[in-house]
Amino acid sequence: MQQPTTSFKGISPRIGNNVYIADSVRLVGEVEVGDDSSIWHMVAARGDVNYIKIGARSNIQDGTILHVTRKSAGNPDGNPLIIGDDVTVGHKCMLHGCTLGNRILVGMGAIVMDGAIVEDDVFIGAGTLVPPNKRLESGYLYVGNPMIQKRPLKEAEMAFLKQSAINYVELKDDYLAEGA
């Protein structure tokens, strides 16, 4: 399968083993995709002014935009976009220069902005806006615009965070087997 990637300033995306990337995806520049991950239709990931790292077994669903913050005098490191392992990013999300830990579900249409840090085991509800430089504590559901910490996650929700990633690993394996 041809990878829909583009080099920028001599840096090309790096794709791990057993990864599914839909034909309509565009990965540009310094983008790293971990093993067993999947990038679905119409995703744009632009690692042009900083880097993007997507961990293992994570899935970025249709229509999502991934970008970064450039380095500047006021922010010498800028803000890369770091997505941990076993993360599910729902349809049509926007992640910009933020850090997501492991076992996170980002609901459809959510926006996570520059400098935000999402600890492990977090559920971000659909349509939620996480403002710049906020820290989302492990083990909670966050909802709203701007987001609020709604409640602790239930045991079944905690289990679903990992199961969602497993479901997408199985689905991308089916797509790879079909030669899609």
TrEMBL record:
<dbReference type="InterPro" id="IPR050484">
    <property type="entry name" value="Transf_Hexapept/Carb_Anhydrase"/>
</dbReference>
<dbReference type="Pfam" id="PF14602">
    <property type="entry name" value="Hexapep_2"/>
</dbReference>
<dbReference type="InterPro" id="IPR001451">
    <property type="entry name" value="Hexapep"/>
</dbReference>
<dbReference type="InterPro" id="IPR011004">
    <property type="entry name" value="Trimer_LpxA-like_sf"/>
</dbReference>
<protein>
    <submittedName>
        <fullName>Gamma carbonic anhydrase family protein</fullName>
    </submittedName>
</protein>
<dbReference type="InterPro" id="IPR047324">
    <property type="entry name" value="LbH_gamma_CA-like"/>
</dbReference>
